[in-house]
Amino acid sequence: MAIKLVTTAAELRAESARLLAEKKGSSQGLVPTMGALHAGHAALARTAVEQNDVVVATIFVNPLQFGDAVDLDRYPRTLDADLGLLDAEGVDLVFAPSVEEVYPFGEPMVRVTAGAMGNTWEGASRPGHFDGALTVVSKLLHYGLPGGAAPDGSTAAYRAYFGQKDAQQLSLVKRMVSDLNFPVEIVAVPTVRDDDGLALSSRNRFLSGDEREAALVLSRALRLIGQRAQAHEPLDLDSAVALVESQPLVQLDYFDVVDPRTLEPLAENCRETPFRGEGLAIIAAKVGPVRLIDNAPLNS
Q1: CA dihedral 193, 196, 197, 199 (to 10 degrees)
Q2: What is the pLDDT of residues 281-294, one digit of tens each?
Q3: CB 56 within 8 A of CB 32
Q4: 87, 158, 272, 273: which sits with the fewest CB atoms below 10 Å from its CB?
Q5: Separation between Cα atoms, residue 266 and residue 286, nearest integer Å
Q6: Are 91 and 3 in contact (CB under 8 A)?
Q7: pTM of the model
Q8: Tell me: the pLDDT tens digits for 47-70?
Q9: Catalytic residues
Q10: Could you tell me if 7 and 135 are in contact, meaning their C-beta atoms sit under 8 angstroms apart?
Q11: What is the spatial distance between Cα 249 and Cα 159, in angstroms, rounded to a whole number?
Q12: Sign of the CA dihedral 199, 204, 210, 215?
């Protein structure tokens, strides 16, 4: 493999500097992941490779964002396959640290808090999840800082890549980077879907055949809302909710249209008035034992 694997922050910094010097590079991209990679992650890596001279991917299953130890243990670890996928996309370097490397003193006493934006939607269903996610993302963004200067002596450009599928996490990461002045550009990559419309997720592997078929109602409902937005029609969210609830294997958690920057509901655009501007349709549901999320950006 051309790709190189490192497991410590010191090795990452040294290899980043070496690669930037070797390639005479002026930009570095970071693709943070928890492994169990699929075509959606490949799209992140591909976009980063297209836009940067050096690309680093991280693979770290973060214990802080799991509320249940069983879920943490169950999360698939597929390092060899992940390295193969990233190598095929042209990623230069993979940082796969141990828990002890990332949290050398145990659970951190000081953490990043997601605030009010992290208490709604996914945050309401998974208390503390986004505090854990932002804490590790902040560390990974620091680990991934370019290890050397651009050829002209300036600081190398630095970008990090996140999928649109995890829309609330993406909004929170953007807000954290803005509010706390992180020296990185956050790049959103559109959701990758199977041919039938199901958003790719590492959780999809746990769906039975019938459950996977039932899960398609999520993307159908989002498409319905998107078509109404494009046509400047009232979104009539209630009818889309009814569509989802008509599927007996699906237990809806939430379905709403929100401001993509604040995650506040856009109630005035959802039912009787013609849709104008932009929004984000978000949905979460349990399909059998598997919790799935999806979303669709709306533009009129």
Answers
A1: -50
A2: 999 999 999 999 99
A3: no
A4: 272
A5: 24
A6: yes
A7: 0.93
A8: 999 999 999 999 999 999 987 777
A9: 41
A10: no
A11: 40
A12: negative
